[in-house]
Specification:
Oligomer: single chain
Number of helices: 3
Order of helices and strands: EEHEEEEEEHHEEEE
Shape: globular
Strand content: 25-35%
Number of strands: 12
Length: 194
């Protein structure tokens, strides 16, 4: 698998990996091992990565890493799209959401974005603007933790697209575009509420 370290905001370390022949679950584990090994100055073979047990039906499980039988003091977050996966390592006190998309969406995906993106009823032809909006909305939904239970049009973004929030919560997420090659990658992050 090919992978690259992404240029991310302080406190977040992330890698993008892609390989159409490698299953998504294996990509996640390999990237997580690389991140944890680098942060803790150990060999990737010394890092054990598992999925957390689902809490309820529909719960999106995250990865848990251990070194020497001890859980690492970081949170791992991930997102996948087709043959690509992004895994990020953050401090446990940080909320992080990730969205990963192909820069050239197919017709079906484009239709879903246009249908749910209330900002683009007038001009549906500006694909970069639509992608920028959609990926930020999805990253905020992921960071919030409720995911698809929050309708996409309930997410609010400021006009320069650097902050996002959901009106029924007090937290505002900073938004970062860390796109690489033909992948649109957006992070939504904030300190977890006390």
């Amino acid at each position: 698998m090919q992978s690259v370290l992404l240029e991310t905001p302080d406190g977040i370390t992330a890698r993008l990996g892609w390989d159409p022949k490698l299953p998504e679950h294996d990509r996640k584990r390999q990237l997580a091992k690389e991140l944890v090994a680098s942060r803790l100055s150990v060999e990737p073979k010394d890092v054990r990565v598992e999925r957390e047990a689902p809490g309820t039906f529909g719960f999106h499980t995250q990865l848990i890493a251990e070194v020497g039988g001890q859980e690492v003091p970081f949170k791992l977050r991930n997102a996948s799209f087709r043959a690509a996966t992004v895994v990020a390592l953050v401090d446990p006190a940080m909320q992080l959401g990730i969205d990963l998309r192909d820069a050239h969406p197919d017709e079906n995906e484009l239709h879903v974005m246009q249908r749910h993106s209330h900002l683009f009823a007038a001009d549906e032809s500006d694909l970069p603007k639509l992608l920028a909006h959609w990926t930020r909305v999805q990253a905020v939904r992921d960071a919030d933790g409720r995911g698809a239970r929050v309708a996409a049009d309930h997410v609010r973004l400021d006009s320069p697209l650097v902050k996002g929030w959901i009106p029924d919560r007090k937290v505002q997420y900073r938004l970062a575009d860390v796109s690489r090659d033909s992948w649109i990658i957006t992070l939504a992050y904030a300190q977890a509420p006390a």
